[in-house]
Design goal:
By secondary structure, the chain is α+β, with helices and mostly antiparallel strands. It has 8 helices and 8 strands, in the order ααββββββαββααααα.
Length: 195
């Protein structure tokens, strides 16, 4: 599994020396999960911060009616985590499931601690990532409350370019909070508008 994607991701936030890069890579562990397999089960402790190098996962919860609600997708070059479970060592509210055969590089909580001691600027990387994640979550809530389905579909296409060709209409509809039939109408309208 190549490490170039994760190093490129980190270098967008902080500059690592060759020795720091080598130390960081030594702390990673790789995992391959098949489509429909779980990276994290609901109720389990989230013990890893995972970086997607190949494939795609969905971060979800099940509502009181038993419907799957997709909070976000994690394609290549994305990090996925249940931050509350990871930081507070408590059962996860979310589950993370592969929607394609997926490869991840993972960093455990204890290895994060080693990383912060050896390379203090890594704390800056984590803080920036988690703040960005919090802002994205706020924006997602605002969009769900204030945007039309068509506007949410447009936001999805911008946020996840190319993902629409890789995952099912049912998953996209779940993410948007609409039925697959309504999504089909939106896609036809979209195709007509931009053809």
């Amino acid at each position: 599994m190549s490490n170039s994607l994760i190093i490129s991701n980190i270098n967008r936030h902080i500059d690592l020396t060759q020795d720091e890069t080598a130390f960081f890579i030594s702390l990673l562990d790789s995992k391959t999960i098949a489509k429909r397999e779980y990276l994290l089960n609901r109720g389990a402790i989230c013990r890893y911060d995972s970086f997607i190098t190949k494939g795609c996962v969905k971060v979800c919860y099940t509502d009181e009616k038993g419907n799957e609600c997709i909070l976000k997708f994690g394609p290549e070059d994305w990090w996925v985590i249940d931050i509350d479970s990871f930081l507070n060592i408590k059962p996860s509210f979310y589950y993370i499931q592969a929607v394609e055969d997926t490869e991840v590089l993972r960093l455990s909580r204890s290895n994060y601690d080693l990383l912060y001691k050896a390379i203090p600027k890594f704390q800056k990387f984590s803080n920036e990532r988690w703040q960005t994640g919090f802002i994205a979550l706020q924006q997602r809530i605002m969009q769900n409350l204030s945007l039309t389905a068509e506007e949410r579909y447009y936001q999805f296409k911008n946020k996840y370019p190319g993902l629409e060709q890789r995952i099912s209409q049912k998953l996209i509809a779940s993410y948007l909070g609409i039925t697959p039939e309504f999504l089909s109408k939106l896609r036809k309208k979209w195709a007509t508008s931009f053809s």
